[in-house]
Amino acid sequence: MKTTIVSVFFLLLVGIRPFGTGTSISFSQSKEEVNPEDSTGLPGDHFSLEGAMELFKNSSSPEEFEKKLNTESNHVNNLDLNGDGNIDYIRVEDKMKDNAHAIVLQVAVNEKEMQDVAVIEIEKNGDASALAQIVGDEELYGEEVIVEAFEEKESTGQTGGKGPSPAVMFPVRVVVNVWLWPCVKFMYVPGYVVWVSPWRWHRHPHWWKPWKVHPWRWHHHHGLHYRHHYHKVHVHRAMVAHKVYAPHRKTSAIVKAKYKPAHASYKVRKANPKPAGTVKPASAGKPMGKPAVKPAPKPSPQTSPGKKPGKQGGVQSKPKPSGGTKGKKGGR
After folding, report:
1. Is residue 253 part of a domain?
2. Cβ neighbours, 10 Å, residue 105
3. What does the DSSP 8-state code read for residue 103?
4. What are the tens digits of pLDDT across the range 33-52?
């Protein structure tokens, strides 16, 4: 009994809460780890673009990549576009032209409609080099969101200032050559058969069982580690692959109608962003330039410099001919 109590106390101490007699656990989430401002309120919050790229990097083929996307323990897919309470199956389809590939990730919303989630755009740009980006669909993310892998390399620079200055080393992010990724090499092997997922609405592989949707905070927290080697950019690098994909993009009228209010709210927040932090106005903090207090009234022309008018000892203005108010001292 003592051992059980001590074990439970230890779990609570490190931030793991046991639930009943099951093995389910949850991890404590600090404000630094999960920022509510990371949520857009759109369905893209529930699919990790960085995670999808990491799974693609570590897959040996598009087929294996599809299986990893639909594995709960990878914490990449948390989408429920048709609102049935269960996770949607993501199918993968390759659109290929010459040295360009567009790996489409999409969901069957019903028996007639498909909704694209994202597309991985790949181009071979040398004998042993290729580049890749994943682009989140604007219907799910509010706008196109482009993510790519990066590496940090040290670069030499000067500290600046007058006169000679010592050289300093600082990290610089560079675009990753994805040619050595197993899945990329697989798709550029002569004789490669373009992958098109055979799965459709209500037709899924026997190994797949849908799971319930996780709360956004839980899903976001479990996918944070994917962000270490990926970042968002604002330029398409695989232009040929992007053009290959464009005419094949699929959207769902059901998804569009369901998330129309969320899109409207997102556009309002985008147009009126909140200021970063809690910046105090100048009047509430240290004065900037002129003081924020109301200046004292200017003295009358006959007031001696350095003296303030008051009830006692003040120099009074010359009374007007019609009779003015006399001070307590100096009046008749």
Report:
1. yes
2. 25
3. E
4. 455 667 889 999 999 999 99
